Amino acid sequence: MRVTHLTPSGEMGGAECVILECIGVGDGWTGTQSSVVTLGPGPFLNAAERLGATTRLVEAPPTLAALGEAFVSSAAVVRGLFAAVWAFPAFFRRFSRTIADLVPHVIHSHGIKTHVLGALLSRRAPVIWHIHDYVGTRAVSSRLLRLLAHRCSLAIAVSESVAQDARRHLPARLPLIVVHNSVDCRRFSPEGRALDLDALSELPQAPPG
Asked: Residue 36: its pLDDT value, please?
């Protein structure tokens, strides 16, 4: 099975670590051919290549790359969308061709921007939204995802808290499950040396209970 993972960033973040777990850390997904498409450059692409994934960079135009909703008003986001409109068609054609050339059986998206882009593809494999963020904190994107949810086959939330937020903002007909992020116990073990975080914080001890 060919799985294409989408992520907006080429940097190493939480979503990118999850993708690396899927494509090759430990046993990975046995029997899959993994590919990765990012909208920006960064060390994540090299990390994915070292694990055997095919990687593609479809760099977003600066106006689209700069769009974000964290700590930004809805009006500012809408203004940013208008600024990005002129560059979007050519960028989306490149994005669509890249996905088509990879011929995926499944498209596994890990970011709000790629959730939207994956859902907009005309001829596409089933799209899975892996939701790492609180959809409800993004007034504009939450509306876009709600409109496009019928083009998504499954949503995965990384926690019950994220799932509850998504259920409040996405249509009830969209299948949504919780899959917690894994921990590689060969790298992270409860045995051995440990930091005393209470002492390092230099804060008074918390009261009982």
From this structure: 97
